[in-house]
Specification:
- The complex is a heterodimer.
- By secondary structure, chain A is an alpha+beta fold.
- Chain A has 15 helices and 14 strands.
- In chain A, helix 1 crosses helix 4, helix 9 runs parallel beside helix 10 and helix 11 crosses helix 15.
- By secondary structure, chain B is of the alpha/beta class.
- Chain B has two domains: 194 residues, Metalloenzyme, LuxS/M16 peptidase-like (Cytochrome Bc1 Complex, Chain A, domain 1, 2-Layer Sandwich), CATH 3.30.830.10; 204 residues, Metalloenzyme, LuxS/M16 peptidase-like (Cytochrome Bc1 Complex, Chain A, domain 1), CATH 3.30.830.10.
- In chain B, strand 8 and strand 9 form a beta hairpin.
- Chain B is globular, with a radius of gyration of 23 Å.
- Classes of the chains: A alpha+beta, B alpha/beta.
Chain lengths: 420, 434
């Protein structure tokens, strides 16, 4: 029982290659993670990393526009990409007999991207439409954008949206795109993860053959700016919704922080699990809400615990806030019971196993840790770290969650849209 | 009782699926949504356990449990850390054999269902999908929402649920499936000794095909929404049922038209014009009927031209079929990507369960790629002409009606155009007047 060990090779140019053999199905997942996300952008050019992710599917010196997708689809490959604050990753799922194609095409676009004004122009329109879909015409997208801007500040790297402000997307130039590519799309800023039905020796050999000649870049120095200290405790906005919403964001540890596991358990004990205190109280006992969830952002640097409550029609959001604060206060004073700790741990253990069932899930988990923290091996410490959390650790996390200076609460009213 | 078992001991996780005979088609008149409410209330306590203790137990096991209410079937799905499988099976036995279905919990579930129904309109995509399904299937059983509406939910009583559950149990369990770290003997023994239910009939409820032959012109539903700058556009029409041989040809045709990044819809609407983030088409199929859909979202300024373009592309595709090059490409994609649908034990279970519930031959999955490979250009042309028609497609648009309706009215191919406001109450079936 269990998975094969992960093997690692680092090329002379700094490219990290991770391989995990899994011959349960004739499939290979191929992920390329770049250590660049929206926090590496600058004010006035937000949305650059995400727009560039789109452009990476365009043209190279060796492949005309559209050829990347045509070649991939010819072998049945599923491809896509994602960008967030700390990273951008590209993935392919292929039949194992076609895995070589992923090495060829990914190495090619790491080295040979060519961009013209027409490509930028059409893809800019696509991204603007994506923003209209996910933010401008989606109340939930708007809520999260407003929360992050309020908590971190509109000009903080975690405060602007990964998709970018609309005016910034419109302002990005071809020169910006070239500079971005030549700064960040380097082998020493990337991790290639290959999982599935392929021998590790073959993976490493192909990686050397396709990426070995690429030069390393001099990467910009890693900088981090603390969030501003004058974040508002409460923000009231009005959106076109059928009921009020409460969205609280509380500064929480980064993904590799020793305190992170205690916050994960706190989230489950407080509101995310079906059996959690706020879930049972708000949905069933007091019947104030129709939806309750909590999640941690999992950023490299301090992110947020999000407490997201959908009120029942006619119920004001403050009622949920009062109840949440009561449970947070109780946890900060007494800590969780052992039963609550056990339930939260079992839930998180189930989540951990579930995310690694497929080749793609495995590759994602490895890539995330390798790219965000520089050590894929930390993935194997997730469960031991969770198991080591004590009730007192959770109590301490709840005390921090009480601290008003860490929290911004969005009270979302119903009505004509606009911020008050 | 059918047992499906896909063992995989390399994971420390187990999936279970149970399909029972009965669903929203059995909701009595005026009480739509009853079976949906039954699904949520079943998980609010069983045997000696009230709701809180029941949920505590599930979480303690690292388990998730959900009940999906379909038209014909009620499907209970559960997953668990495999070391706790035995305890989960015990818990599920009590859910099936001795659910509490308490009045107080039922009333809470009703109030949650009413709130959720209201909240459908908070997402443009969800709202237009809800109304579009009712519009396309108007007058057919599929046009009746499984959620019910405000009136029917309010009328439902706990005795309806108890009766419905007794009937479902008496009709029986159609299949018990397991995937991952769960042994076939364990499943078989549990189904036989602990559940001990009769074997249900997956095809007891037969849904008639929708007769759309008298539809003339493209009928349009405009969901008027003035405060958005992006319109949602969905097209749909009844299509080929699951067991029809033409479905293979239609799958090849659809893959080329709107199934991939290089498909016609993506190339024309997204890549060439930048009008949308995504444009797709799809085929869904049940035993007696199917549904072809295509959709995209565009800035309001491009709403009308994108409708004209979408219809032109559809008509050309439906009328002309595919070139040899397009056929080769689409077939290659479908055949080569087929292993992805069988990648994990859970995915294999889902595919086998789907085949069984549709009554597909046991050889369906084994022969799927050969059947796709055998599709010819003539097969595609014939299937497109037989099952799709530009005169019988329906269009739903969420956007500003005052801009759009006069433009649509001037088109030669539109039929009746109906307008409703986005904030009208959602009903069990669509009620429209010109």
């Amino acid at each position: 029982m269990g998975l094969n060990p992960v093997r690692k090779d680092t090329l002379d140019n700094g490219l990290v290659v991770l391989a995990q053999e899994d011959f349960r199905a004739p499939i290979v997942a191929y992920h390329t993670w770049y250590g660049v996300g929206s926090r590496h952008e600058r004010p006035g050019r937000t949305g650059m990393a995400h727009l560039f992710e789109h452009l990476m599917f365009k043209e190279t010196a060796n492949l005309k526009e559209g050829e990347f997708d045509r070649k991939m689809e010819a072998v049945g490959a599923r491809t896509n990409a994602a960008t967030w604050v700390d990273w951008t990753f590209y993935y392919e799922k292929l039949p194992s007999h076609a895995a070589k194609l992923a090495f060829e095409l990914e190495a090619d676009r790491m080295e040979n991207m060519t961009l013209g004004p027409d490509q930028l122009s059409s893809e800019r329109q696509v991204v603007m439409n994506e923003r209209r879909l996910r933010v401008d015409n989606d109340p939930e997208g708007k809520m999260y954008e407003i929360l992050y801007a309020a908590r971190y500040g509109r000009n903080h790297p975690y405060g602007w949206p990964t998709i970018g402000w609309m005016e910034d997307i419109e302002a990005i130039t071809l020169e910006d795109c070239h500079a971005f590519y030549e700064t960040y799309y380097a082998p020493n800023n990337a991790t290639v993860v290959v999982t599935g039905a392929m021998k590790a020796e073959d993976i490493f050999e192909m990686a050397h053959n396709h990426y070995g000649h690429l030069p390393a870049f001099e990467l910009p120095e890693e900088k981090w700016v603390s969030p501003h200290s004058d974040s508002p405790e409460k923000v009231e906005i009005t959106l076109s919704l059928s009921s009020e919403r409460l969205l609280m964001g509380a500064l929480s540890p980064g993904i590799g922080d020793p305190d992170m596991p205690a916050w994960e358990i706190l989230n489950e004990v407080l509101l995310n699990s079906e059996s959690s205190r706020a879930h049972q109280d708000l949905l069933y006992e007091k019947e104030l809400a129709s939806g309750v969830s909590g999640w941690l952002s999992g950023f490299r640097y301090p992110g947020m615990l999000h407490l997201d409550i959908t009120m029942k029609p006619g119920v004001v959001a403050e009622k949920a806030l009062e109840i949440l604060d009561g449970h947070i206060r109780d946890l900060a004073e007494k800590g969780p019971s052992q039963e609550e700790m056990d339930r939260a741990l079992a839930k998180l253990e189930g989540d951990f196993h579930r995310q690694r069932l497929s080749a793609g899930g495995l590759a994602h988990a490895l890539g995330l840790y390798a790219c965000t923290l520089g050590d894929h091996g930390l993935l194997e410490t997730v469960l031991p770290r969770l198991k080591a959390v004590s009730a007192e650790d959770v109590r301490q996390a709840a005390k921090k969650l009480q601290d008003p200076s860490r929290r911004t609460t969005l009270l979302v009213r119903q009505g004509e849209e606009g911020t008050e | 009782m059918n047992i499906l078992s896909l063992e995989d001991e390399s994971v420390e996780y187990a999936f279970l699926t149970m399909a029972l005979d009965g669903g929203s088609a059995d909701d009595s008149s005026g009480k739509g949504g009853s079976h949906h409410l039954l699904g949520s209330t079943l998980l609010c306590g069983a045997g000696d356990l009230g709701r809180v203790e029941f949920q505590n137990n599930l979480d303690r096991l690292g388990a998730d449990c959900a009940i999906r209410t379909g038209r014909r079937h009620t499907v209970l799905e559960a997953e668990v850390l495999s070391r706790n499988l035995d305890e989960l099976l015990e818990l599920l036995t009590t859910v099936i054999k001795t659910p509490r279905l308490e009045e107080s919990e039922f009333e809470k579930q009703k109030r949650i269902a009413l709130a959720e129904l209201e909240q459908v309109r908070d997402s443009d995509e969800e709202l237009v999908a809800f109304l579009h399904a009712q519009f396309v299937w108007n007058g057919h059983p599929y046009g009746r929402s499984f959620r019910g509406d405000k009136d029917s939910i309010s009328r439902a009583e706990v005795s309806d649920l108890r009766d419905a559950w007794e009937q479902i149990k008496s009709r029986g369990m159609i299949v018990v499936g397991g995937a991952g770290d769960v042994k076939e003997d364990t499943l078989r023994g549990w189904a036989r000794d602990d559940l001990a239910l009769p074997t249900g009939d997956p095809f007891r409820i037969s849904t008639p095909a929708l007769d759309s032959t008298n539809w003339t012109g493209v009928e349009v539903l405009v969901v008027d929404r003035q405060d958005r700058n992006q319109a949602q556009i969905l097209w749909g029409q009844p299509s080929c049922p699951a067991l029809h041989d033409d479905l293979y040809a239609l799958r090849v045709a659809n893959t080329s038209f709107g199934g991939t990044f290089t498909s016609t819809l993506m190339q024309e609407i997204r890549e060439k014009r930048g009008w949308t983030y995504g444009a797709h088409s799809s085929l869904a199929a049940d035993r007696t009927t199917g549904l072809f859909s295509m959709g995209y979202h565009v800035e309001n300024a491009n709403m009308f031209p994108s409708i004209e373009l979408g219809y032109e592309l559809y008509r050309a595709w439906q009328g002309n079929g595919l070139s040899d090059e397009e056929i080769t490409k689409a077939k290659s994609y479908i055949i080569n990507s087929f292993p992805f649908s069988l990648e994990t034990a859970q995915k294999r279970l889902e595919r086998e369960l789907g085949s069984l519930m549709l009554g597909r031959d046991k050889s369906y999955l084994d022969e799927f790629t050969q059947r796709i490979d055998a599709v010819t250009s003539d097969d595609i042309r014939r299937a497109l002409k037989t099952h799709l028609s530009p005169e019988r497609i329906r269009l739903s648009v969420l956007g500003p009606a005052d801009q759009l309706v006069p433009q649509l009215d001037a088109l030669p191919w539109t039929g009746n155009i109906q307008v409703m406001s986005y904030d009208e109450p959602l009903r069990e079936t669509l009620s429209l007047s010109r």
